[in-house]
Design brief:
- The chain has 296 residues and is α/β, with parallel strands linked by helices.
- It has a single domain, classed as TIM Barrel (Alpha-Beta Barrel).
- Helix content is 44%, strand content 13%.
- The protein has an 8-stranded parallel barrel, surrounded by 4 helices.
- α4 runs parallel beside α5.
- The radius of gyration is 18 Å and the shape is globular.
- 43% of the residues are buried.
Amino acid sequence: MNLGRIIVPVITPFKGDTSIDYKKFSNLLKETCREDFTDSIIIMATTGEFVSMTFEERKSLIKCAREAVSNKPLIVSTSAVTTGETVKLTKAAEEIGADVALIMQPYYYRPSQEEIYEHFKTIAESTNIPIMIYNLLITGVNISPAITIKLAHYDNIIAVKEIGSNFFQTAQVINGLREENIEEKLQIYAGSAKLSLPLLTQGAIGVVTEGLIGKEVKEIIQNYFQGNVSEATDIYLNNIIPYFGIFEFCDVVPGIKHMLNLQGHEIGIPRAPLKELSEEQKTFVKTKTKELGLLI
């Protein structure tokens, strides 16, 4: 399955009572699909606040997204703390019609590499939906290159969203895939725009990035693959690094939600325990967003 160069995760809008605003979610998905930098869509990833939702809410969001997204691959986060719950939600996503399941290593507990392997093995053998491994550093456990390569032998494990603890991990995985003659088996994506240029140089084929900076990321990718590395580097240093500097002063989820609210999307605030930005943080974010040309 071709997921393209740029995958955009869409946040989850909440109403004033913190219930999910499905209408705004649908509209946001449709608007994101219309952007020329969007090749695929992810829902309920880290910025989508899946950890604060019930099983039934997650199923409802998948149904809503499937109706709204008709012309792009729809990637759905089905991660859960336990293997059993992950299998259950992944099967539900498959039945509803999601194109790909995004699954991270189990979180809260810090599983061994063998336990991580068994987790993904069980899911892969229990479902047919294509799977994108989400190697997420904040879980506290990195999925090693050896385990990623081992999992690549499963037919329905097709991609990796990489935000691991080893900066050179993408190159290690690609080397290992080459040694086993399955180099084309996994599509590896930089899991954040902050990692875009560094991981492209190691062999990543694309980037997972917020739509707020999607145009800039598209320019980085186009310049890089056209051989204009200097131009790609300038865009990265002048736009992407300053953008991520914003999150040194506020958490990512409430920060992104506030930026979207500033743009007029009215998608609410995060669910507890995450909090709305303070007035001081709001002022800072607004100023920096304007400086970066993300707010008129």
